[in-house]
Amino acid sequence: MQEYKVLIVEDSPTMRQLISFALKRLRGIKIVEANDGVDGLKKLSSESFDLVFTDINMPVMDGLKLVSLVRSDPNYKHIPIVIITTEGAQEDRERALALGASDYITKPIQPNRILDVTRSLLSIP
Length: 125
Description:
Protein name: Response regulator
Shape: globular
Low-confidence stretches: none
Domain Response regulatory: 5-122
Helix content: 40-55%
InterPro entries: Bact_response_regulator, CheY-like_superfamily, Sig_transdc_resp-reg_receiver
Radius of gyration: 13 Å
GO biological process, one term: phosphorelay signal transduction system
Organism: Geoanaerobacter pelophilus
Number of strands: 5
Structural class: alpha/beta
C-alpha cells in the first residue's frame, strides 16, 4: 500500500484536529501539522510531502503567501495545495487559484469534501 504524507498548515489547533480526523479515514496517510506559514515552510524544507492543506488567515505568514512561495520554488511547486478558509468570496477563491492553489474549500469543514479532494489530488481510488 502506498503511503502519502500530508502537511496541514492551520493556526487553530481545533481546525487542525478536524482536518486530521477526516484524513485519518484514508489508509496510508501520514499527517504533519504546522501552526502558520513559516512553520509550514520549515517543515516543507525538512521533509517531503504529497499534499498541503493551508488556511489563509494565520499570524506570521498567511496561506496565500505560503502558496506563492511554494509555487515559486522548483523543489515544491509540484505539491498540490488546498486552501481551507472562511474566506468564501469569489475574488478570494480566484486569487488563491491564480497563485497556484490546487483547490479551495470553505469552512465549516465537511469531512467528505476533504476526503474527495484528497482522493482526487493523490489519485487514491
